[in-house]
Amino acid sequence: AQSVSQHNHHVILSEAASLELGCNYSYGGTVNLFWYVQYPGQHLQLLLKYFSGDPLVKGIKGFEAEFIKSKFSFNLRKPSVQWSDTAEYFCAASEAGRRALTFGSGTRLQVQP
Amino acid sequence: DTAVSQTPKYLVTQMGNDKSIKCEQNLGHDTMYWYKQDSKKFLKIMFSYNNKELIINETVPNRFSPKSPDKAHLNLHINSLELGDSAVYFCASSQGLANEQFFGPGTRLTVL
Question: What span, in angstroms and rounded, lies between the C-alpha atoms of A25 and A23?
Fold first, then answer.
């Protein structure tokens, strides 16, 4: 069965620091990959997605992610975080042709002013 | 304009009761989902409907029964509520196999 792993459970950064959140998936076939963000008390919002093509994907709010097929990874990055980036970040994957998403356990990002 | 809406936002009830959560999407999507987010923020798929047909039914107790009266609605009925059902339930929708899912605001269910 497909699984998604996020290794960082809680990350604390100061404003302007660079961010990288790890995500690995287990499925060997074609996958679609996503990063969602959940701000405190709010619903999940899509940050970015990868279906095919350029493995470096740019999303909203200055986030980007790189798909590395050989490492089964889809890490999220941002060069300079802001206090407003404080949120829970979820990596998710779906097998091509299967509609449901499998989520990682989430990473809580806390940005200190 | 809310794309995916859920009611109620909060639901507090006693063990053993039956309750329903409603979900509506105005995006014209053909697929809708229910996810459960537990106290540790872990999100797991429960059900998925495509054009009113059940296509995914994960290992969920049969006390949970989804109902899709039309493509824009997917309701979740829960019988004989248990303490372990306390969670946030998210509805989502997507179109085709593109699988970009849009989530509702969630329903926080607390079973006492």
Answer: 7
Q: Give residue-wise pLDDT tens across range B33-74.
A: 999 999 888 899 998 888 888 887 777 889 999 999 999 999
CB A105 within 8 A of CB A41: no
> Distance (Å, rounded) from C-alpha B8 to C-alpha B2?
14
Q: State whether residue B49 sits within 8 Å of chain A by CB.
A: no
Structure tokens at A10: 């809680």
- Distance from the first to the final alpha carbon of chain A: 41
Q: Residue A106: how many CB atoms within 10 A of its CB?
A: 23
Length of chain A: 113
Q: Please state whether B41 falls in left (phi above 0), alpha (psi between -120 and 50) or beta.
A: left
Per DSSP, what are the bridge partners of residue B67?
B75
Return the amino acid letter for A93. A
**A·B CB contacts under 8 A:** 54
Q: pLDDT tens-digit profile of A13-33?
A: 999 999 999 999 998 788 899
Characterise B16 by phi-psi region: left (phi > 0), alpha (psi -120 to 50), beta (else).
left
CA A39 to chain centre: 14
- Please list every residue in chain B whose beta carbon sits closer than 8 Å to the beta carbon of residue A38: 41
Cβ atoms A36, A60 nearer than 8 A: no
